[in-house]
Protein 1
Amino acid sequence: MNCGAFQDRKVLITGGLGFIGSNLARRLVDQGAEVTLVDSLLPPCGGNLFNIRGLENRLRVEVLDIRQALQQGVLASDVDYVFNLAGLSSHLDSMTDPAMDLDINCAAQLSLLEAARQTSPDAKIVFASTRQIYGKPDHLPVDEDHPIRPIDVNGIHKAAGESYHLLYHRVYGLRAVALRLTNTYGPRMRVKDARQTFLGVWIGQVLQGRPFELWGGEQLRDFTYVDDVVDALMLAAVEPAVDGGAFNLSGEPVVSLRGLADLLVEASGGSYEVCAFPPERRLIDIGDYYADDRRFRALTGWTPNVPLVAGLERTLGYYRDELANYL
Amino acid sequence: MNCGAFQDRKVLITGGLGFIGSNLARRLVDQGAEVTLVDSLLPPCGGNLFNIRGLENRLRVEVLDIRQALQQGVLASDVDYVFNLAGLSSHLDSMTDPAMDLDINCAAQLSLLEAARQTSPDAKIVFASTRQIYGKPDHLPVDEDHPIRPIDVNGIHKAAGESYHLLYHRVYGLRAVALRLTNTYGPRMRVKDARQTFLGVWIGQVLQGRPFELWGGEQLRDFTYVDDVVDALMLAAVEPAVDGGAFNLSGEPVVSLRGLADLLVEASGGSYEVCAFPPERRLIDIGDYYADDRRFRALTGWTPNVPLVAGLERTLGYYRDELANYL
């Protein structure tokens, strides 16, 4: 989208050196926004300075965690938009270090919202939530009325983080909205391990000439290409009708993990091995998932434009050139 | 209940100097349990040393917060039962100091569960959850399948705290169960302010000869007398069929706040003033609530034995003698 809405507007992106944040930053800078990125560059998060290569002189970067950045005044009264993308997304890490997940996905979020209501009550805040809060679906596709029943520590904390945003909207009038992302993929995603999605590590493996591991394979999933997520974030930012709501994003087509593996191998020339599901992951696996995102489409006109095969090709194209910067 | 199940068993009660914890401690000591209480005695919590008057030599008390107490080894491998009642319950405090609510209702809970899975994987853990996690009911009575949609910070954090317990059951096999309490009342409740329930402050006021304030008045509520809650906690502790579940408790009869105010005035001889609902509370008010607790009754045989009028009389009787120790 390019409606001029971001021209000369002050934008703060938390987690801005990460996968989605850096893709969003590129788009906003191109549209004339005055962009500040905050990113802790903590190793388990997705931040990577390479993600903003070429943009260095067109935006401001604060390598700080959110609370330090708030103390430095990044959330001044003239901030127009906050894209609140900072967070941990690894389900397994959240089980081995729940206190760290709590600190980043809850404590830091509360600090941000408290600062917002005190210093920037007019800013629009777009929060990156996750399908993980639903837990194991009762029915498919999952719409926003599906029970919130997370099955790992990360899901519990992301659910709390989303709830804070909706609460601060209702009680304090903050203009906040949450997008419940499904698997997002594309250039600048983390590929050195499975902390963002298993698809990242698959791509990293095939491009290093190694077979990737498919665990199980029958689970159904949906995927959104990062440019489509960036569109959605920007539409959510400018559309008042979504304020106070939480909305699914999805993408087409729904595919089994085995189907995805086959598509990837077809596009990359690599190969994969089928493995049993690791027991520590099986316990927190959500089974099949795909989302009904009609509410968000209806309110904003959003529609994903990059189908899975094209998105995989673009992603592989990026990493063929840049893989060394992501390992 | 007295089935001998607690004779010589090692029991840890967090929040043990508080309202429910101290009533439970009395019962367990009488049944021959070896009881340790942990309580931070933080001012906004319900802890009060007077609550264990006469018991001082029959149990152990650690005036520490949970994490300090864990470092002192209170959760040794031979603990049989943990009644995990420590927590903040004030909705309004959670809005003015969300970080404190997060620390006590989430961070400390995670510490306890991490310690339990590492040092006491066989202990049974009974967690005091709350109806507050449901938010504004969609339908009445509220059963356990009702959506979890908390509308204040306290509700968000208590929902997370409950989810941790159920997760640690599912993933690590901890024998944990959550009881979603509604308004609990009785001797040893906090009466100097409304941090535990509005009924506490009403009782404190009428016994000081001052009219209490009724805000609104039409909201429906249910109440459980503390001895019935103690029964429920002990049944939950000994009944394996409830492990991994979360269960409502209720009580009879359902009554409007005005109806309750009239009952209290009839029993106490006091008076009340009808006031408009304060705006900062209206925003986080849940409206009408009463619970369907048939699942817990069916699995444990629990039934509340003290109806509201009798419970109010007993409570007033206690505070007529002891009010000075609670102001």
Note: DSSP finds eleven helices and 13 strands in chain A.
Protein 2
Amino acid sequence: MKMNKKIRIAQFGLGPIGIACLSLLSRKNRFEVVGGIDIREALVGHSLNDVVGSSSFGSAQIYESFEALAHETPVDAVLHTVGSRANTSLEQMKPMIEAGCAIVSSCEELLFPALRAPEETALADTHCHKTGGRILGTGVNPGFVLDVLPICLTGICADVRAVYGERVVDASTRRQPLQKKVGSGLPPEAFIELEKKGLAGHAGFHESLMLIAHALGWTVGPISDSIEAVVASEQIETDHFTIEVGQTAGLHQIVHASSPEGHEIHLDLKMYQGAKDPHDYLRLDSEPPIEATVHGGIAGDLATVAALVNALPRLMQADPGVRLMTELSLPKCVV
Amino acid sequence: MKMNKKIRIAQFGLGPIGIACLSLLSRKNRFEVVGGIDIREALVGHSLNDVVGSSSFGSAQIYESFEALAHETPVDAVLHTVGSRANTSLEQMKPMIEAGCAIVSSCEELLFPALRAPEETALADTHCHKTGGRILGTGVNPGFVLDVLPICLTGICADVRAVYGERVVDASTRRQPLQKKVGSGLPPEAFIELEKKGLAGHAGFHESLMLIAHALGWTVGPISDSIEAVVASEQIETDHFTIEVGQTAGLHQIVHASSPEGHEIHLDLKMYQGAKDPHDYLRLDSEPPIEATVHGGIAGDLATVAALVNALPRLMQADPGVRLMTELSLPKCVV
């Protein structure tokens, strides 16, 4: 399938990731940005050029809703960069599905939406089949380092017994919202309490595990999840936070599950301010065994943004429905 | 697309890789092996069980041709593990295409067949569209380590300027035909002469480079190719060869190409008896930059065999035609 026409794309959510998506889209030939969507009244009606600080977007404006934008101009695709919860995101996407759009989302739970929102996912999938709509959740983590990449490596394995992944991220290199999400500056007990309520921590970790299990055809039992605050042993200053000794510098989280047949998935994430030796490490207990390191780790919000933009043309070539990264063609950088 | 019925599969070529394919197929639930094909008269008419040393294959036999096998039983798919040349392989595949089969091949040039056999590839593609046939060339190298894996890593890049890959293989761990192909025991001049005639060396290296260029949308200029014999500095004994000092222990080959826009691909392969520190190393000059090592390298003929078997269900879900690895869904190990 060749697509010579530019993809007419809308940006839903103009936070730091949404703005970065727009910057990247403006550098790619495949896309024509037709507008932005944000609920903040202060932004609505402004031109994208003003908000992004660019001259690439012509007369494209910011609208208060997808419907308002779609009323003005046809939309082929949406980049959705608002929120982490599958059910909220799927609700927001209803008018986009109705319009037959392809929607790539940074919503972490959408990496494997059947885990937390099975009914909403089934409804959205049925809706997509009627309209030609498509939905995909992706990113770097979840969406690549601890799920897609190890799954890809199993492609040259005759058999796989276990998948181990370890990711160490220096949160001080990341955007403010991520630094906040890992608890920066909170008393450790306050961070753990927020995390238990789903108001802090790393979203999408269970989804990474489930995508691996699903890809490999493993029926895993309950996911064990251990999380603790990493506490600052010296004062840490970042662009966004000052963290005193004894306060939370970030998190260390491990998820693990196994199947009755003895399959195991074990994912270990350390994401804190000032983490030493950031890296991604993968080990497959497999035939042949595989052990790989991404030196320095794949970090940086630019990678997240690129993962979203790069997935879009591949999503548009997939069958309509709520899709998984394992159902799209091989990841690649789009021109 | 669910496929509950087993895939009825034939094994074309009963060399070491073909036999290993049969062993792996017999361990997987997705496949039913309906027969083997080999031109060697001594094998024709024998049962697969006898030749593989197994009891998994029931009454499945060895036939002298695909037509003879297909006359007896329906065939959905073929694993083709004979030869390195695209035009020869595509000729062999004509009756399989005619039968609408999905064919996964270890033929190195089929990784990117348009490079060496553009007309034959276009004809086969047209033929496939008529019959529902599908063709894919894959493996570990070419097919994964120096092409599919770096392409996959570009999926989280905003931009890529260059792709560097380095692979070091200890040939002594590999099958006899591979040890022979790298020139083991030959005088260095004799190896280079054979290589220039296409009778020795690593097939598919240019194809790896071209698959990367194609995936990233780069129009690269002529491929520069430097090859030299790695000469034994001490006597080397393997299961298959004794290599004296001064004779060829293997090869060191580099392929390189660039585009007018400044894109570069540089692939470096060392494959010789007794190579120290075998590994695969990938580096992307990209945003963000990426550097990864597969410790010990993905070597071993089992990985090659697994790559072929694992690709088959994904090929069957792709559109009919001559397909590339970049067009199939994400690699994964099949159950």
Note: Chain B touches chain A through 53 residues (CB under 8 Å).
